[in-house]
Amino acid sequence: MTCTKKVIKKTGIALIVLICMSGCDREDEAKWSEEVLLNDGSVAVVHRRATRASSSFLEYGRGYLRRNEFIYPPGNVRWGFFKGSAAQSILSFDVLDGVPFIVVSPSKRCLNKASEDFDVQFLRWQSNEWLEISQRDFSVELLRKNMTESYWGGAADQDIKGVVNWRDKLPSADLDFDNKKPKLLVDWLTERKHICGITRR
Fold first, then answer.
1. Can you list the positions of beta strands (E) in 13-154?
2. For the chain, which residues score pLDDT lower than 50?
3. Cα separation, 16 vs 22, whole angstroms
4. What local confidence, expressed as pLDDT, does residue 196 receive?
């Protein structure tokens, strides 16, 4: 191989490495405020932020998820997952007797759960942290599927932003057509067979 070819080869490799390195640090961000219809008919506003790696010529479609954050301003209630931890999605949020609760869909959905349990995680805000509680100690029948999971568009400029009205944010499949409210969480989970006895099969 001649010196010229070696230089061209090394230059090409260096260029690819530089492009890859620059792409690794880039990310797309979706940041929005979201109205949430609570069980008592009131509407709360939560602030949310999610990030994912930006697309590059080495990747097809959108990049991997990096973080998902949630803030309920009263009491500075916060939840989130970050790169390196189990990816989770919030399905429901509510405040019962002044106490915030969330239901999330974790990666190890049925760990230490009975076959009739739903394959989700129930969390209660207590002493400035989230504590997991069993389904039997949770008023799951009061909650609705009231949190959006659809915040990424086909491209970065199509991602969710601004303030999202609770009536407009949910797909028709998540709405109760009798009263045009988000479906009860129990019905939503049952319809989609989010039950440990089925998930484990």
1. 27-37, 43-53, 65-72, 77-82, 89-96, 99-105, 121-126, 129-133
2. 7, 14-23
3. 10
4. 92
